[in-house]
Known about the structure:
It is built from ten helices and seven strands. It has helices at 5-23, 30-38, 46-62, 79-91, 93-104, 144-149, 152-172, 176-179, 185-188, 226-234; strands spanning 128-131, 197-200, 206-213, 223-224, 239-245, 252-257, 265-267. By secondary structure, the chain is α/β, with parallel strands linked by helices.
Amino acid sequence: MSWxxxxxxxxxxxxxxxLVQELAGQSYNKSAHRKVLIQKxxxxxxxxxxxxxxxxxxxxISLRCPYISGYKPLxxxxxxxxxxxxxxxxxxxxxxxxxxxxTALPAIVPIQNGYASLIVDPPQPALRVQEAPARKYMPQRxxxxxxxxxxxxxxxxxEEFVLQYEHFRLYQLGxxxxxxxxxxxxxxxxxxxxxxxxxxxxxxxxxxxEVKTTAFGKETxxxxxxxxxxxxKDHTTDYQLYRLYNFRQSPKMFxxxxxxxxxxxxxxxxxxxxF
Length: 275
């Protein structure tokens, strides 16, 4: 049975309430939220509510907004759901203010007691990325992910985190002489090389690492420049993109080796008019 507008509106409002709390660093209880919400719905199961929350995550990602990382995005949602989410975004000033603050917060490198749980598998199916900078016209809607991508403090902290990880990785592999040669090239040689960190394989072969960092969930799209895409394509065997996510709370990372388009759908959104 299709969800009514009243049901969808109640579910979207509940999701946004939790999302604002999460972005503001406040704790909340999903089970308690679900028990209150279920009284407003037409005999929906908890599983159905869970899937609808996952649908909302998918809608928010498509609108380049942060989402609740605990609700893994699920596609194939009803058109009414997207309509209601867009309406919520247009009127929810508290979400807007909280999301803006979350994207602009300064970041520092978190202290790690080892990296045993850091590396995870990439999202499945492949996430979508967009060539930066994104300038798609979206009336009365902010591109929160682009705002976060411009957070220099967050980007630098992510790169320094990877620098520390690469030192650790090579020392653990018995290659201290290579670990000591790992270089933060984005800092020492300048941005625009097509990668951020120069590291090595145990054989001594160079590993060119591009770092993309977000404080949001695993499936959050990221922005990548044309130069970075070209560099990855030209260095098929020695290029790695490290994607850090949940960076402020509990950093996790997955790696994409070789050309980016082998893993992601590239969505070019920038047009240049030349005379």
